[in-house]
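Take a record.
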Amino acid sequence: MFALFDRDGWTINELAARSKVTHVAVLHLIKKLEGARLVKRKQCTEDGRATRVWLTQLGRDLEPRMRALHERNLNTLVRVLGKEDATQLGALLGRLIQGLGEDSETMPQAAAKSSRTTHIQR
């Protein structure tokens, strides 16, 4: 939601790229947020294939609380790990997210489905 606090009207693909997660993951989250009446989706006027996401007033009203919670969590992270380790953790997690994104982009859909099926059947 932080991306939407900064600018309304992102497409699902833009949100996925910005968040470094899959289109499907963003779509799943948007559906949940829409069910909670925090966002609404509209077809993109420039590209009818795309969908844009907008905060509702209820979603916009959450911004101060969410920013305060985020700040509190960051302060806790630094208090527990120290500034140097917290910074290193952030860098390591960034590398992991980037690597996972690269793997998911190169993995064919059929292979992704079969590996999930294999894992589930074990």
User: Anything to note?
Assistant: The chain has a mean pLDDT of 84. The chain has seven helices and three strands. The longest strand covers residues 39-43. The helical segments are 2-6, 12-19, 23-35, 57-61, 63-81, 83-106, 109-121.
